[in-house]
Write a structure and sequence with these properties.
It is built from 16 helices and twelve strands. The protein is α/β, with parallel strands linked by helices.
Length: 549
């Protein structure tokens, strides 16, 4: 009799296992063709970007810096690159004005993080201005009734893209389905084994855990499908043609400066919520003509007519790069037009060699994009904030511009290199001079407590430019700021967007154009010979920010 009951129970448990596996198969099979629908990507064509000859000719003829596309038959990438009639369709770019020097004094009297209280709520000053945020918001930002701020973020990327159709959405969640199905199957098999051994308590626990895990995974995937559907276009880690567009990133009203709020499993948050998290809500790809027309209009309406380009680092997806760029623009704050350049990082921890190769490959596209910005945006100034391996993309692009003598005048106002993951010897030999030649001011942030760069040093066999250990990177003409002790995170690598003292210093350097001697939290040191660098004192910088709240 016991054997019969055991057989019946075994059949019941086996039936449950088959139902679970069948459910996984049904959900996974509900897609169009089982493969993502790839957006047609033309073969990369170096002819599509601004050429050395054309730019030299444009400068010699009028000096306006306008890029005139070369004559000839349309290239396969013509739809995504500036057409011949671009200048006529968006209007002539304004004549560039003389930029003030970095030491010319402040352009604004606003202070960073000044109009937000300690709990993130607005102060009376900001509330009286009719906004729950400080006045210096990114241009075009608007607050919605959903309890969030919507930040428009212009972008350029050479990642491969896919349309976020049903086939891609299911495939995107396929990894979770496989993992959940595998663990649930293991739990069910363990339950069968425990039942056959007459350990019914363990059997019940195993089957319960397996069922709960499968339910949680299915819910997470289903909630995730909605979020992916809202994004429109999704970009992967594969290489693609240079494309441009506009995305919308939401910042919650409860946002705290230095935080990139994300869903946390330990808080039982399975999907992004615009009221709690920084969310990439929409990504819209545009033809080059429409992109630069809208960008020029946004720049013209900005108070200072300036553009800030953010270049992300290694192990970063397009989504997280967009979220970080918007968060940084809000927390500085930056009242111009924020722009993201996203190169094809794999977004995986173990894909460092691939990311390193793609970073060098993407430099040409960044070069073309910077030249286009200078020609078509009408910006009064263009500055770059590059982080980690993104500094390699930036350094290679600036070196190419200098090497090919594409631009006779300095193209960039300020370049900020945060935790640069570049070989220190190569930085001194190959990149320092071109960076200083191409920008009016270069700032380098380094830390001796950056464990990500320590791992990069072990992998590459040579010190990195962002490591402030015994071989601190100090070069005449580059302002090196040592920021050890400002980032309390596990790796100490993300201080450019997470550390309040660094954000305070970045604001005064980038927005108020103050020299290191004018920033009282910087303590000057002298390295070899007469080369000076500065050490950031976190307590003084934090107190300076608090005194303006």
């Amino acid at each position: 009799m016991r054997c019969r009951r055991g057989g019946v129970s075994t059949r019941v448990v086996s039936g449950l296992a088959m139902v679970a596996i069948t459910g996984i198969a049904v959900v996974t099979s509900q897609r169009d063709d089982g493969q993502p629908t790839a957006r047609p990507v033309a073969t990369a064509n170096v002819e599509s970007g601004p050429s050395t000859q054309v730019l030299k000719q444009a400068e010699a003829s009028g000096g306006s810096g306008e890029v005139v596309p070369r004559a000839g038959a349309p290239t396969p990438r013509e739809q995504n690159n500036p057409p011949r009639a671009l200048s006529q369709s968006i209007g002539e770019p304004p004549q560039p004005k003389r930029l003030p020097s970095p030491s010319a004094g402040p352009r604004s009297t606003a202070e960073p993080l000044a109009s937000r209280a300690a709990d993130g709520s607005p102060t009376d000053a900001s509330a009286s201005a009719g906004s729950a945020w400080h006045a210096d918001l990114p241009n075009g930002s608007k607050r919605e009734s959903e309890g969030c701020l919507v930040v428009p973020l212009y972008y350029a990327t050479d990642r491969a893209g896919v349309a976020a159709g049903w086939g891609y959405r299911v495939l995107n969640g396929g990894g979770w389905l496989v993992l959940g199905g595998s663990l649930s199957t293991i739990a069910l098999l363990l339950a069968i084994t425990m039942h056959l051994r007459r350990r019914r308590g363990w059997a019940l626990l195993s089957i319960t855990c397996g069922a709960l895990w499968l339910i949680c995974v299915l819910l997470a995937v289903q909630r995730g499908l909605t979020a992916i559907e809202q994004q429109g276009v999704s970009y992967l880690g594969d290489r693609g043609a240079l494309v441009r567009g506009i995305c919308q990133v939401t910042i919650p009203d409860t946002h705290q400066p230095g935080n990139l709020e994300s869903p946390a499993l330990w808080r039982l948050e399975l999907a992004p919520d615009v009221k709690k998290h920084v969310v990439l809500r929409e990504t819209r790809e545009l033809p080059a003509t429409a992109f630069y027309k809208q960008l020029a209009e946004a720049v013209q309406s900005a108070p200072e007519r300036d553009v800030l380009v953010f270049v992300h680092g290694y192990n970063v997806t397009f989504e997280n790069a967009a979220r970080r760029a918007a968060q940084l623009a809000v927390d500085l704050p930056f009242d111009g037009v924020p722009v993201l350049f996203s190169w094809p990082s794999q977004g995986r921890l173990l894909a460092y060699p691939v990311d390193q190769t793609n970073a060098t490959w993407a430099a040409r596209d960044l070069q073309d994009f910077l030249l286009e910005l200078a020609a078509y945006s009408g910006a009064r100034s263009i500055s770059i904030v590059a982080h980690s391996m993104g500094t390699l993309v930036t350094a290679e692009a600036m070196a190419s511009i200098e090497r090919e003598r594409i631009h006779r005048t300095r193209l960039i106002d300020q370049i900020v290199l945060a935790a640069p993951d570049i070989d220190a010897d190569r930085f001194r030999r190959d990149y320092a001079e071109s960076l200083m030649s191409g920008a009016r001011r270069v700032t380098l942030y380094a830390s001796s407590q950056d464990f990500a760069l320590a791992a990069s040093k072990r992998f590459n066999g040579h010190p990195r430019a962002g490591d402030s250990g015994p071989g601190l990177m100090v070069v005449d003409g580059i302002e090196t700021v040592e920021v050890s002790g400002t980032d309390l995170s596990l790796l100490g690598h993300g201080y450019i967007g997470e550390s309040i003292p660094v954000l305070v210093d970045l604001y005064h350097a980038l927005r108020l154009r103050k020299t290191p001697d004018e920033r009282p939290w910087l303590l000057e040191h002298v390295a070899a010979g007469t080369q000076a660098y500065w050490q950031l004192q976190p307590r003084i910088a934090t107190a300076a920010a608090a005194s303006h709240r």
